[in-house]
Write a structure and sequence with these properties.
The chain is mainly alpha-helical and about 350 residues long. The protein is built from 15 helices and nine strands. About 45% of the residues are buried.
């Protein structure tokens, strides 16, 4: 397999169709061997809310304290900012009118898409940025969630569980409407990537990491620590308040080598399918500027076998030899790019 990958990496860009043919041939002729011993998924990428945060979430759902966010003339209550069937749209002039399924969902079965993925489609670390993705790709992923071929390596991860059990109840017309809306949005820089040896100590809340109020720091180790720029604003679902991704020193350079040249045969250069600037190609999604926590989860899920289906079969060869550190470097580099 290493020889096959090296030959692809040295070749010219053939386009996704021709490259897919080469990869399918490699997959059919070559068995990729890697350790079958399963380890626990990295907690920092698969953040699981503790019981105390679940209790705090329930308390916010009944909190009628009025709140504001910078740059918005709206006043909402804390409870309104947590309403999954009426998206807290702080900046309605910054995006097109949301379809009903995006703005309000369909109670009681289907949550509003814009609640988790935000009205501007940029999403958060626990889910996916949908802004600018091909509508056909979004429809395809909903079908994969519904059929069960797209799952998670961490069964307690509620965001994916919600996609599997609730959002798959959307009708075909609703799915098409949401897909076309998110595809029409223009992605923008949302995540600030910082290489550092030390990071804020964190806790888990809202299915993501948030810094401790004490300001204490610790070594980053072999992790990506992706946190809100402003925790309070993120809790209010302010889609103008982004994220910081702290990544290990040297990970950007290593990630660039893996992404752009395959890392001397470790993997396959991403531009073959995802486009020269990694902003997507045809029905293949973009990688540039996306949450590194999300990217690590996808690489891990595909290697682990939790995410399967026809659309990701070609990725099996891509991830087969990747270590977790490789995944961290790839995710750090792609997150640093302009979307």
């Amino acid at each position: 397999m290493r020889q096959v990958l090296q030959s692809i990496n040295k070749g010219v860009f053939l386009g996704p169709a021709a490259s897919a043919t080469v990869l399918i041939a490699a997959l059919s002729c070559t068995h990729v061997a890697y350790s079958q011993e399963r380890t626990a998924p990295p907690y920092w990428a698969y953040a699981i809310d503790p019981p105390e945060d679940l209790a705090a979430t329930r308390a916010r759902a009944t909190d009628n304290t009025p709140v504001h966010v910078p740059g918005s003339a709206k006043t909402l209550t804390v409870a309104q900012s947590q309403d999954r069937f009426n998206v807290p749209d702080w900046h309605p002039d910054d995006h097109p009118v949301m379809p009903e399924i995006v703005a309000r969902g369909r109670p009681p079965d289907v949550f509003a898409c814009g609640y988790c993925h935000l009205p501007d489609g940029l999403g958060r670390p626990e889910n996916s940025s949908l802004a600018g993705l091909p509508s056909g790709y979004i429809v395809e992923q909903l079908a994969d969630f519904k059929s069960g071929v797209r799952k998670t390596s961490e069964p307690l991860q509620q965001p994916i569980g919600t996609m599997n059990t609730a959002e798959t109840k959307a009708t075909e017309a609703e799915v098409q409407s949401a897909a076309q809306y998110f595809a029409s949005l223009k992605p923008r820089p949302w995540i600030r990537v910082v290489e550092t040896g030390t990071v804020p100590k964190t806790r888990i809340a809202g299915w993501m990491l948030v810094p401790l109020s004490s300001g204490e720091r610790e070594p980053i180790g072999h992790r990506i620590i992706e946190v809100p720029e402003n925790t309070q604003q993120t809790e209010l679902r302010n889609d103008a308040s982004g994220f910081i991704a702290y990544v290990p020193p040297g990970s950007l350079k290593k990630g660039q080598a893996l992404v752009r040249s395959g890392g001397a045969g470790v993997t396959i250069q991403c531009s073959i399918c995802h486009g020269p600037q990694l902003t997507g190609l045809g029905n293949v999604p973009s990688l540039a500027g996306r949450s590194p926590s999300y990217i690590v989860r996808q690489l891990y899920d595909i290697k682990d076998g939790a995410r399967t289906g026809l659309a990701v079969q070609l990725m099996k060869a891509v991830v087969a030899q990747l270590s977790l550190d490789d995944m961290i470097s790839i995710a750090a580099y792609t997150a640093s790019l302009q979307p």
